[in-house]
Amino acid sequence: MIRRKGREIALQILYQKEITKNPLEETINIYKTHFNIENEKALEFGEELVRGIVERLDFIDGLIKKHVPSWPFERLNLTDKNILRIAIYELFFRPEIPEIVSINEAIELAKIYGTDDSPAFINGVLDSIYKKELLKVEANSRW
After folding, report:
1. What residues contact 113, with CB distance under 8 A and at least 6 apart?
2. What are phi and psi of 111, to 5 degrees?
3. Would you give per-residue pLDDT tens digits along the chain (143 residues)?
4. Is-contact 79 15, C-beta < 8 A?
5. Is 95 helix (H, G, I), strand (E, B) or coil?
């Protein structure tokens, strides 16, 4: 439950950052000021996710663009884009989180915060990234 709430917090912070264009620290501080987060561990996890995502945003967005070539990146639904960012960050940079958990959690976030089409879209993009990118990286690291 802590990690799911942390992912929700990360989604909200990322969304706010993209809408306001404020620097990361300012966005996090505004979020903390306006939301009473009772679970400090969830907030901590959410902040870790956001900081990691922002640090690796070019890599993460590059994967999204590569696996959604038929849709302009700028026109992607902002919620879907940020759910994908969270899941991709977890898939590639949080090895302690099983891949299936990251994908399933992204689909659950899409069911709650996205459109009717979001869960299938998120699932399809993450499945493609998992099969075409992550498994390749894992196979190459074994040799």
Report:
1. 8, 11, 79, 83
2. -65, -35
3. 899 999 999 999 999 999 999 999 999 999 988 887 788 999 999 999 999 999 999 999 999 999 998 888 888 999 999 999 999 999 999 999 999 999 999 999 999 999 999 999 999 999 999 999 877 766 666 44
4. yes
5. coil
> Do 118 and 79 touch, CB atoms closer than 8 A?
yes
Give CA–CA dist 46/61, Å, rounded. Answer: 19
Structure tokens at 32: 């903390």
Model-level pTM?
0.93
Contacts of 133 (CB under 8 A, 6+ apart): 63
